Structures are given as C-alpha cells and as structure tokens.
Amino acid sequence: MNNNKQDLIDDVRILVIDDQSTMRKIVSQLLFQIGKFNISEASNGLQAMKLLNNPGRSKRPDVIISDLHMDGMDGIELCNKIRLSKIPGVRDIPVLMLTGESDDFILKVSKQVGVFKILSKPIGAPELKKHISSALGYQI
Questions:
Q1: Are 99 and 68 in contact (CB under 8 A)?
Q2: DSSP letter for each residue of 17-62
Q3: So what CATH class is 2-136?
Q4: Which of 35, 66, 69, 121 has the most CB atoms around its CB within 10 Å?
Q5: Closest CA to 116 of 14, 5, 10, 41
C-alpha cells in the first residue's frame, strides 16, 4: 500500500519559483521531507512562463509554489498570466503563493488573480503537505 502512495507522489510535478536560490533549496528540502516529487525550478516569473509556454514540454506541473515578490515578474503578474494562458492545462494549474507579505491589499489582489492559497513564510513540511494535497484534490 505504501508503494502506491509513493507512486502517486512520484508522479506529482511541482514547479518551485523564487528569485532567491536559498528559498528554492529550502522549499525543495521541505518537499523532499514530504516525499519524492518531480521538482523543477524557475528563478522568476519570466523563466516560469517560458517553461509553461514551451510547446515541447510534455509534462506541465501539477502544482506551482511561487514567491510573491520577485524581480522581472512578481507572483501576482505570474498568476495572472497563468490564468489568462491560452495553452491547454496551464490556466488550471493551482498556484500556492509562499510569502512573508502581510499587506491585506496585496494578499487580496493575489487571490483575485487566481492564487489557490497564500502560504506564510516560514512554513513547515506538514503544513506544505496539507496545502499541496488540497491543491491536488487528494491526500498525498
């Protein structure tokens, strides 16, 4: 039975987006504590959109974990572009916004552009697991 659960996790593709390599590493380590996911990374929203819009990319992420404040394209603009995408499957990818932001207006705008859930930094593996399960619609 455990193998089936691990097989589900192995099949889950997660895109981690943050302009700080240290934060990408921390999130990847948290994901490793939860299970063995198929993890890819982008250093900002522009790079993430290139990955998502690449027609040669056969497997799109099942969940995106993104920082809010990034150079080039912030998390709000990224989420807005994802929701407006014309590429099948891209606009429906749940976005978990991981941020230290506490400004209610910015957080409300994030939700308005389609962020699935706003997560506060710092976050632990159990809480991250709960939100990924919620985004996927099944328990991991």
A1: yes
A2: E-S-HHHHHHHHHHHHHH---EEEEESSHHHHHHHHH-TT-----S
A3: alpha beta
A4: 66
A5: 14
Digit-by-digit pLDDT tens for the chain (140 residues) are 345 555 555 689 999 999 999 999 999 999 999 988 999 999 999 999 999 988 565 588 999 999 999 998 999 999 999 999 998 889 999 999 999 988 899 999 999 999 999 999 999 999 999 999 999 999 88
Task: Tell me which residue of 131, 124, 136 sits closest to 30, measured CA to CA.
Answer: 124
Neighbouring-strand partners of residue 117: 96
Give whole-number Cα distances, 111 to 37, 48, 134, in Å. 26, 19, 16
Q: Are 75 and 97 in contact (CB under 8 A)?
A: yes
Cα(39)–Cα(18) distance, integer angstroms? 13
Instruction: Tell me which DSSP letter residue 92 carries.
Output: T
pTM of the model as a whole: 0.90
In terms of Cβ atoms closer than 10 Å to its own Cβ (0-12, 13-18, 19+), residue 109 is middle
> For helices 75-83 and 45-53, what crossing angle results, to 10°?
20
